[in-house]
Design goal:
With about 120 residues, the protein is an alpha+beta fold. The chain is built from 4 helices and 5 strands. It has a 5-stranded mixed β-sheet with strand order 1-2-5-4-3. It is globular, with a radius of gyration of 13 Å.
Length: about 120
C-alpha cells in the first residue's frame, strides 16, 4: 500500500469511528520525515481509543504495516501512530486547537477525495 492510499485508508477508518474534522496534509515537499499527516479529533478518551484501535487493527488485517512507533496515550489527549510515510494524529479538540498542526503546516496542501 503506497503512502497516499494508506493516508486515505486511515482517514476512512477514523471516519467509520465518527472522528471529527479529519484532514490529510501532504507534507512530502515540506518534510524529510514523512509524506502525509492524518489529523483527526476524538471527543473523549474512549472515543480516542476506539479511533486508534480501529486504524491499527484494520490496517494490520488488510495486510498493511504496523506502526513503527506509537506515542502518547488516550489520557494525554493525543495519540500518534507513526507509519513512517504516514503519521496519524488523533487528538481531543482542546489539544488540537492548542497545537494547531494545520496552521503550523499551513503550506501543506490538503488531500481531498479518494486515494
Amino acid at each position: 500500500m503506497d503512502s497516499r492510499k494508506l493516508a486515505q485508508r486511515c482517514k476512512e477508518l477514523a471516519d467509520e469511528k465518527k472522528a471529527e474534522n479529519i484532514a490529510i496534509l501532504d507534507v512530502s515537499k515540506l518534510s524529510s520525515v514523512t509524506d502525509f499527516f492524518v489529523i483527526a479529533t476524538g471527543t473523549s478518551e474512549p472515543h480516542l481509543r476506539a479511533i486508534v484501535d480501529e486504524i491499527e487493527q484494520r490496517i494490520r488485517e488488510e495486510g498493511g504495516p504496523r506502526p513503527r512507533a506509537t506515542d502518547g496515550t488516550v489520557s494525554t489527549n493525543w495519540v500518534v501512530l507513526d507509519y513512517f510515510d504516514v503519521i496519524v494524529h488523533v487528538m481531543r479538540p482542546e489539544t488540537r486547537s492548542h497545537y494547531d498542526l494545520e496552521n503550523l503546516w499551513g503550506d501543506a496542501p490538503r488531500l481531498r477525495g479518494p486515494a
